[in-house]
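Data deposition worksheet. Section B asks for the primary sequence of the deposited chain exactly as it was used as input, without tags or linkers unless they were present during the calculation. Section C holds the resulting structure in token form. Section D is free text for depositor observations; keep each observation to a single sentence. Incomplete worksheets are returned to the depositor.
Section A, Depositor: J.P.
Section B:
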Amino acid sequence: MTRRLPVPLLLHAALFAAVLLVLALRPPAEGTLLLVPIATAPGVLASAALAADARLVGRGPGRSLVVRGTRDRIKARLRLGDALLLAAPSPLCGDDLEVRT
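Section C:
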């Protein structure tokens, strides 16, 4: 005989998981960001990031780009619907392999 969980408890757990996901992928104000193209080519995103004084760090999963810069400056260079701007956590995007001098 199995016992079913009440619907409010399942909804609460789903909401909690969604909040954790949003917090984990929310882009920082400054630092390493993931640019995921939606309606534009990765080359256009790279140009927009460079125009916003961001540095290209490498490729992310799929066609995405990992950049280091300021979120608001990069957002100002993108058109609405061009790309998603997300946090770039190390497990998802790999370690920062930037050469330091």
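Section D:
The radius of gyration is 17 Å.
The chain has one domain: 7-93.
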